[in-house]
Amino acid sequence: MKRARVAYGGALHDAAATADDCLRLADGRIVGEADVVWLPPFEPRTIVALGLNYADHAKELAFQPLQSEPLVFLKGPNTLIGHRGATRRPADAAFMHYECELAVVIGVPARNVRRADALRHVAGYTVANDYAIRDYLENWYRPNLRVKNRDGCTAIGPWLVDAADVPDPMNLALRTLVNGRVVQQGNTRDLIHDVPALIEYLSSFMTLGAGDVILTGTPEGVVDVRPGDEVVCEIDGIGRLVNTLAGDALFGRAA
Amino acid sequence: MLTIDRSLTRLHGRAPLDAAPPAGAHAAFEPAATRTVYGTLLNHRGALAALGEAVHQPPYKAPPRAPVLYIKPANTWIGSGAPIPVPAGIGELEMGASLAVVIGSTACRVGLSDALDHVAGYTIANDVSVPHAEFYRPSIRHKCRDGFLPIGPWVTARRLVADPDALELRVFVDGHLRQRATTAELIRPIAQLLVDVTEFMTLAPGDVLLTGVPAGAPRARAGQQVAIEIDGLGRLESALVPEAELAGGAA
Questions:
Q1: Would the CB atoms of A140 and B64 count as touching at under 8 Å?
Q2: Scanning every residue of chain B, which has its alpha carbon at the shortest distance from the alpha carbon of A144?
Q3: Which among A61, A204, B68, B178 is placed 20 to 30 Å from A94, CA to CA?
Q4: Fold for the domain defined by A1-39
Q5: How far is B77 from chain A (nearest CA, A)?
Q6: Looking at the domain assignment, is residue B21 inside a domain?
Q7: Dihedrals φ, ψ of B139, to 5°?
Q8: CB of A92 less than 8 A from some CB of B
């Protein structure tokens, strides 16, 4: 089953995907995907994100040797934005890039979970686009929150796909298209720390709860995106997440 | 006489919200955090000064320009009176006393003159860490373990705090005063911190911003009692207990 949260007709709704990817609201109405405002598909609790978790991307950013311990940082709910949203690119930024990532949503609390049992704690999967603005990087708790926790800079959705419907989360092709051109490609089988390993690692020191989400990192192929660009992040079997870049003026800031 | 506004604190329904905390009820305090808790790194002048020339050298290469923030996630929150779990194999933990600013109304791109209008009140936080020397990478494993953010005991309304930039913090370990500091030493005083943070991220009602830990955070080990006082805000008390003795970790 694929679930979403949307605004429609003046109210918020839980919805499920129909066979042709329309939305069936909880009250039975069926509406088209362009007729709703898409929200993040679940209520987030703790948002965990990974850096440098694909070998090719780490190499692209000139990081070596590869770290043995996962590079983990946290994000706040202010940064999430649903499918078909607009994300601000500040006028003073020289390099802003998307990051297509498999997002893993926890369903059952996890504490000291072993790798072999880890996937039993997963509720489902969705797609995330974890934008970064490299101009704001500083070498303090890098990547710092000014890079990674900006309002509306983490698109997520459109669907939360039940874990039962994803037989092998560690073999999913993912890609990003900017204005229809493929700019980033990868496969979750190339994760340095795969989903079971991440759940085992994180749950060894923090209890993961229902609604916690792990953004697992992005492969190589990040390029600068500009206001007006349409950025589509796709993961086979999970979803196709659309986001559009917008300049300062849309957000009430002087151009 | 000063009364304490605990309207933002849930007390397991044991006391009416306008009453004084019941005697001996510390174990009943829930954490004074409900949404997202952000910490601020190196916002005390002494804490940055303690790094000396290292701030100009690799891996940092330059002192921080913008506020350096981190998150203390929900699994870390505990109330006053609840135990801090001490992981096996770790001798001592840092007791990071900080003023905690509780947001009352949506704060986005606030100005210096009205920044404090967005504050509901203030409380006390113990930003517990496994001691670590480097700040280049986020240190989730050191700062985000279960029970690593005692916060409370209650929220004191903003109108009851005349000058939040001049509050003394005191840390006691087993009853001995181990640290005194003041919020007058903040590199970014509270209003300026809110201006610089809300320039890029919106703070929502219920969010908490920790203003920063002073240099030389005292350390404590399993079996010890820690208390943090901040002028006018109360006393946040915790016992350090081996993690293995606490079934399932923090609640």
A1: yes
A2: B68
A3: B68
A4: SH3 type barrels. (2.30.30)
A5: 11
A6: no
A7: -115, 65
A8: no
Measured between alpha carbons, how far is B155 from B205 in angstroms, rounded to an integer? 13
Q: Contact, B184 vs B200, CB < 8 A? A: no
Distance from CA of B19 to the nearest CA of A (A): 32
User: Is residue B158 a part of any domain in this protein?
Assistant: yes
Number of inter-chain CB pairs under 8 A, A vs B: 114
C-alpha–C-alpha distance, residues B29 and B33, integer Å: 11
User: Whole domain around residue B83: which residue ranges?
Assistant: 30-245
- Kindly state whether residue B18 falls inside one of the protein's structural domains: no
This model of the complex carries an ipTM of: 0.94
Beta carbons of B64 and A138 less than 8 Å apart: yes
B68 — contact with chain A (CB < 8 Å)? Answer: yes
B163 lies in some domain: yes
Q: What is the CA radius of gyration of chain B?
A: 17
- What residue spans in chain A does CATH classification 2.30.30.370 cover? 1-39
CB contact (8 A) between residue A206 and residue B67: no
Give the nearest partner residue to B70 out of A79, A111, A141, using CB atoms. Answer: A141
B8 neighbors B155 (Cβ within 8 angstroms):
yes
Structural domain total, chain B:
1
For A43-251, which CATH superfamily applies?
Fumarylacetoacetase-like, C-terminal domain (3.90.850.10)
Predicted structure pTM score: 0.93
Considering only alpha carbons, which residue of chain A is nearest residue B106?
Answer: A78
Chain A residues lying within 8 Å of B136, measured CB to CB: 139-142
**B176-233 pLDDT tens trace:** 999 999 999 999 999 999 999 999 999 999 999 999 999 999 999 999 999 999 999 9
